[in-house]
Amino acid sequence: MLRLQARHFDMISNLPDAVKDEILMKLPTIDADAARSKVTMILLQLMLNHEGPVLKFTLSIPGFESCSIIDNLILFLSRNNIEDFTLQMWEDHYSLPASIFKCQLLRHLQLEGCSVSNTRELKGFSRLTTLVLIDIIISDEALRSLISESPLLESLELRMTHNLDIYIDAPNLRKFSFEGFARLMSLQLMPLVASVSIKLDHIGTEPCKECSLTQFFQTMPAIEYLYLDYGMIKKFYMKEPKLCTTLVHLQYLDLNLMSFDEMEFQFTLCLLRSFPNLKSVEIEIKFFFLLFTGLRRT
């Protein structure tokens, strides 16, 4: 566990909170360059003075497209048994160094506002159980390899801001959450997954006649909770009133629909008929229009 010790007496830390707040309000605004210099000095002091393993590290700072001090930090962490690493970058996408893949003791990894360009040295993490990727620039193949080569992965959260072909091959997965853009979503067998949430901003405007709802659910036989929104629902071409497979473990269904049109209505009925042990159903409709046809005036 990381423990930092001050070398000099800190008068500020011992003051009452009200006094500290008053001091902070009177301080001048720190510009971006000064903030970066301060971050650099803190990280440099950490790497020079700390002895022993660093099991958990979280860094949330304004984005740097490239920054040698963060590159060195990641290399430092890879040599100090890091198991839980969170890196949140704002504004620019920071280009991850190849040394990130040397952190093979990682169990939890969260990356936000980063880009993965070192695809030649890309590999998964042998001990990773939780992976969170938010606003990451990465190729289809790199993402696919990262997931499939992390064999112990149990929880996967993706929030993508650009179109990708999404391939999920993670047989040990228990929880899968996706939000954002995707051209294609292909799920391989996830026999242990219990929770699936898919919020799709765009996957094409027309239904896919080759997409099978039955095949989709056959990849998740143990699912207990399901969230789908209209982006994913529109992808399926409804041909059968009921699935060819019955999901007996599914208890909680959450649907976010657009207008409850004929396709969404048939989709909902199909699911309700196929989940015999439902305990809770929540349906949110963004735009609801009641259309009455064939009514006679009296």
Folded structure, characterized:
The termini are far apart. The chain is of the alpha/beta class and 298 residues long. The protein has helices spanning 17-26, 32-49, 68-78, 140-148, 213-218, 230-233, 262-274; strands at 56-62, 84-90, 94-95, 108-112, 114-115, 130-134, 155-160, 165-168, 175-181, 184-187, 195-202, 225-229, 252-257, 280-285. The strands form 3 sheets. A 10-stranded parallel sheet has the order 1-2-4-6-7-9-11-12-13-14. The chain has a two-stranded parallel sheet with strand order 3-5. A two-stranded parallel sheet has the order 8-10. The longest helix has 18 residues, at 32-49. The protein contains 7 helices and 14 strands. The protein is elongated and about 65 Å long. Mean pLDDT is 81; it is low at 1-13 and 289-298. It has a domain at 11-153: Alpha-Beta Horseshoe (Leucine-rich repeat, LRR (right-handed beta-alpha superhelix)), CATH 3.80.10. Helix 2 (32-49) packs parallel to helix 3. It comes from Lithospermum erythrorhizon (Purple gromwell). Residues 74-281 form the F-box/LRR-repeat protein 15/At3g58940/PEG3-like LRR domain. Pfam families: LRR_At5g56370. This is F-box/LRR-repeat protein 15/At3g58940/PEG3-like LRR domain-containing protein. InterPro entries: LRR_dom_sf, LRR_FXL15/At3g58940/PEG3-like.
